[in-house]
Amino acid sequence: MSRLQIHPVNPPTPGQSSPASAPFSSDDGEVIAAELAARGLRFERWPTRGELADGADQEAILSAYASEVARIQSQGAYPRVDAIRLGPDHPERQALRQKFLAEHTHAEDEVRFFVEGQGLFCLHISEEVLQVLCTSGDLISVPAGTRHWFDMGAAPHFTALRFFNNPDGWVARFTGDDIASHFPLLDP
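The structure corresponding to this sequence follows.
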């Protein structure tokens, strides 16, 4: 189930918290979409086709979701699309998790449609950190220049379509800020 939590960038120290300082939290898709839209992000819930075959490669995934790809590409901004699929046995899962956990920005929007599993987008916007648990059926679009990080968990399980307007695909500019280490992970 999708979930949004909104934290202050500088949370109160232990013992100083109060109900008023507790993070905002919602698992209502309409509330999530409205809160993100108020901050310039896009969030939508789309139907999925169910579980993909165990051996589904990028071509099979893109073929299964051809209508969703066409829907996004018809908007004209994302001519390149690929599919990423990570499971708990992926040989590079630990290195990829560490790379994505570092706060970074992109020169283009980061658009993802989750067709399986889940992942945690953490967005550093002004004096807030928004943690968006994206699950199967979630479309999220993070505007270019937004400081963020992504946690796929210690035992990742997700498949997502990735839309690009950059021919080089995923290109990050790391901020060097350790802010991600101060917020909860998808799982330890």
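Residues 3-10+23-176 form a domain with the Jelly Rolls fold (CATH 2.60.120.10).
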